[in-house]
Write a structure and sequence with these properties.
alpha+beta, Fumarylacetoacetate hydrolase, domain 2, 4-stranded antiparallel beta sheet
Length: 308
């Protein structure tokens, strides 16, 4: 049975319904907490109401923060890609972008096209050395659990400068949490049953059952990643986002015309079109994101963040 852990600035807590039980541990990092499993399940005797806690990200920094590109069929098709020809593609984000589940998303002065991407975060529990093969049968050996994440993106920087790292790494551009849900061996098989939902100001923008849309599942992705990247306990892999982000590829005929234009003119036209898109985030917008199974047995919680 899964165990849900949350974090405050002064410690760690295990959830029991609406109650939070203080975890008696000296661990200051996610990595150290995962090494102290006996403390996580022990009863400390100190209990508080969950609503009384000011939660921060259950993933501490610094850590490795790796993300997958175009890992959902619906999103790939929306960008004009063929999901049947895609292979796992990774990029890095600065872990300094990680923020808590209620912390504000801060918009840099130079950013106008601020986008959202709900993502399932896979939290590494044991070192994954180069050459490791992770399978559906042994994934519980390497992965501790799951979190909700939002891969916030500055689209004009991502596209015009080809700067994926910068466009996704500003402070507060990776809200994480509220819960770190530690899964047992059998529960990893329920990852396809998780539904990801993101709303902006109460309007549903992304709503997808993972099993219906995911291209490369976490075990295969970690195996591909282990060809060149060591992952350690407390590191985080973001597994992609489904359709519903603010940005969307123009129709094929428009793309073909754009290929004939000088780059400066092409981008001028593109961003003039994007500036009229009301789905990009604005100051004051409230982003609500959650991931859970229909029966609620695996529930990663809901994050509520306000754009500033």
């Amino acid at each position: 049975m899964s165990i849900s852990v949350v974090r405050t600035t002064d410690g760690w807590w295990r959830l029991d319904g609406d109650r939070a039980i203080r975890i008696d541990t000296s661990a200051e990092t996610t990595r150290a907490l995962l090494a102290d499993r006996s403390a996580i399940v022990a009863d400390s005797g100190y209990v508080r109401d969950l609503d009384d806690l000011d939660l921060v990200s259950p993933i501490t920094t610094p850590c490795r923060l790796v993300a997958q590109l175009l890992n959902y069929r619906s999103h790939a098709i929306d960008t004009g890609a063929d999901p049947n020809t895609l292979h796992p593609t990774f990029f890095r984000k600065s872990s300094a972008s990680i923020s808590g589940p209620t912390a504000p998303i801060r918009t840099p002065d130079q950013v106008r096209l601020l986008d959202y991407e709900i993502e399932l975060g896979v939290v590494v529990g044991t070192e994954i050395p180069i050459g490791t093969t992770v399978t559906e049968n042994n994934i519980s050996k390497y992965v501790a659990g799951l979190v909700v994440a939002n891969d916030v993106s500055a689209r004009e920087i991502q596209l015009t400068r080809t700067q994926v790292y910068e466009s996704k790494s500003y402070p507060s551009f990776t809200p994480v949490g509220p819960r770190l849900v530690l899964l047992d061996d059998e529960e990893f098989g329920r990852i396809p049953d998780l539904r990801m939902t993101l709303e902006v100001n109460g309007e549903t923008r992304q709503d997808q059952l993972i099993g219906d849309d995911l291209i490369t599942p976490p075990a295969e992705a970690l195996t591909r990643l282990a060809r060149f990247q060591v992952m350690a306990p407390g590191d985080l892999l973001l597994t992609g986002t489904p359709i519903g982000t603010a940005i969307s590829a123009p129709p094929i005929i428009v793309q073909k015309v754009g290929e004939l234009l000088p780059p400066a003119l092409k981008w001028k036209i593109f961003f003039a079109r994007q500036a009229k898109n009301s789905k990009y985030l604005s100051v004051g917008d409230v982003v609500t994101a959650g991931i859970r199974t229909a029966d609620g047995l695996i529930d990663l919680g809901v994050q509520n963040t306000v754009v500033q």
